[in-house]
Amino acid sequence: MELYWNIAAGTVSCVAIGMTSYLLHWLVKPFLQNKKAAVFAGAVHFAAMMIMYFIPPEINGMVAYAVGVLAAFIVMYALDRRNWEQKIFLCFTIYLLDWISHGIAILLRDAGYGIFNFFQVEQQDEWLQFAVFVFLSVFYVLIRFLCLKLFVYMVNRAYGYKQENMTGKELALMLSTPLSVLAGYCAFQFFSEIYLLDSDQYIWQVHMEFWWIKVIYQLVSFVAIVLSVFTYQKIKSAYKKEREDAVLIEQMDHMKEHIAEVETRYAEIRRLKHDMGNHVVTLENLVLREKPQEAEKYLARLKKELWEVTGEESSGNPVVDVILNESSRRAEERGIRFTADFHFPGEAVMDAFDLSIILNNTINNAIEGCEGSDHPQIRLISYRKKNVYMIECANSFVGEIRLDEESGMPVTSKKDAQEHGYGLISIRNVAQKYYGDIDIRLKNGKFILSIMLMLR
């Protein structure tokens, strides 16, 4: 009979460890670019816990779980080295959430024992006692699993910007709450062990209210952890909004420059138009006097001045022409081949300012994306089918892109990642203003951005 009890107790412990390992994997998976790292982290956590469970000497529960979580962190960092601060926070979080779940589940399990003891089940035959033990153990594991799964789900929901880097200062801020919770956890463990040494009894056997106080503390701790995550995300959201506003202000400044340049061009065109009669008379006199060489030189100079004033591009909108000409010059300076078959959507109701936001950000990203390419090139096209206006930009690209599962935006590997990505956000915001969206894909060494707008 003792063998059956040992098998049942061991099975319960192994299942509980496996449950925690699975939910650790479930918690960290959305945060990792390398999804296999989450699987390996869960597997290594399970293996480390099983080794410590079956191989003596016996290790204190707090230390054992800390070692298991540390092993998971090492694996995650080895396979996905970015954002280690965030990984530390996640490991602290799963450690504390598992303790909270255990506290709630064990209270309900002990309450079940109390009910059975009230009916004096312990005086019945040993098989019935064994059945009660198995039933309550399964009940404990199930409650612990459901609680931990709920807690992990809520933390994942509260943590919105999963792919953005967490700085050292942010880590210190985020760990302040978990460390306070951990200090309380250690205090409960200390009081329990001291009471056991002094009275040779567990404190909850004499003072049942100890369990209620502990559970209340655990629930308050969980709420505090979720609120700290939620507050952190609000701070990140405010910072992101601030950066987006800064980008928008910068774009407005660019737009003012483009408008000023357009006004200058129009002034030059008016001047050229005013002088055109004189130019025609001069050319006629040169032709009539049979001076073809002078006429050709004069005409070439006139054509050059006309080109400098009007520009090379002709999209149907002067502001767009300015942006395309400027972009072409910038690309040429960087050795990038820039071609454009772009046309303003004509009589459609579309603000030129919105289109300038799309073009400026799209071309800036494309020029940046060409870095490292042996044959850098950018191809920009637009076309319209009925009310659908499509803009597509393809640029040379070296490397790989990963898309954030929630936002669909590329995840950059740059150290200053928080300063990047706002251009695509601005593009998407404009597209959604016109009931459209963007699509990003990598094909044959080219980064392709497609933008769909619905026009009236």
3D structure, described in words:
The chain has 456 residues and is an alpha+beta fold. Helices cover 69% and strands 9% of the residues. It has twelve helices and seven strands. The chain has helices at residues 2-28, 35-54, 61-79, 84-118, 126-158, 168-199, 203-206, 209-288, 292-310, 318-333, 352-369, 422-433, and strands at 337-341, 377-385, 388-396, 402-403, 410-411, 437-443, 446-454. The strands form two sheets. A five-stranded mixed beta sheet has the order 1-2-3-7-6, covered by helices on one side. Strands 4-5 form a two-stranded antiparallel ribbon. The longest helix has 80 residues, at 209-288. It is rod-shaped and about 130 Å long. The relative contact order is 0.06. Residues 413-420 have low confidence and may be disordered.
Mean pLDDT across all amino acids: 81
Q: How many beta-strand runs? A: 7
The parts where pLDDT drops under 50 for at least 5 residues are 413-420
Strand content: 5-15%
The SS-based structural class is alpha+beta
Largest sheet: 5 strands, mixed
* Count of alpha/pi helices: 12
Note the run of SSEs as H and E: HHHHHHHHHHEHEEEEHEE
| Principal-axes shape call | rod-shaped
CA radius of gyration: 34 Å
